[in-house]
Amino acid sequence: MTKIEKNLDDIPPSLKGGANSKRNGVIANAKFITTKKYRDFYKKKDTTTLLKRIYKNKCAYCEQIVLQDSEQNKTLPNDKSIVEHYRPTSKYYWLAYSWDNLLLSCLACSDNKGNDFEIINQKIEYSNSFKNKIHKSTKLYNRLEKPKMIHPELEDIKDKLDFNRDGVIKSADERVKYTIKTCKLDRYELNEKRQTVLNKLIDDINYVIEQKESMRDVILNFMDKNNDFIAFRIWISKNRKELLRKNG
Length: 248
Fold this sequence. Notes:
Elements: H1 13-16, H2 19-29, H3 36-39, H4 45-54, E1 81-85, E2 102-106, H5 107-113, H6 138-145, E3 162-163, E4 169-170, H7 174-183, H8 188-211, H9 216-222, H10 230-238, H11 240-247
Antiparallel strand pairs: 1-2, 3-4
């Protein structure tokens, strides 16, 4: 996970317009309404398009590149993208259409996370004052509740992440460990994909050494922010000499 920059004033039109009636509906119901017209409104095209741009088509949690989403979510592969709620609608129904509560996720991370959202302090309940900060309540809520789940738009945790050369992710920080465990960021397919990233870099470096070419382009391409698994790439860059020495 790497920190994502989102402009909370650049709100998708559908979340400012039609979402108001849906938001009022779930607030009046005191529970999220799971019918299709309520369930689909937070993932209108303008919202999903903007989230994909902000997240560079990568999952907020595992950072793998996600494919185009589909209307038939039940058949989505694990690397397809969906709109994810940081605070789950089952517990925070009034945040279903709040811009600062919406992330881009792969299906696997979203399914693994599910409704899990442990907090250290007392849970916030809905109050009318929320309507004054519909799209900007997360910072306040986090300060009061102290959630265990990392929010990738608010926290820079790259220095709290560690990896093995085989792609296994780990951390000594309790909240990061909770996020890794909850989203299963150490699942086999992700470890394999991360290991492939390192193996390719080693192959590329060996090639330019053989060809007596500059390594500059290899490193620049490797660290391009549009790539997947940026946190892992940062770790590799920091430990490059040791990793290459072990390989050689």
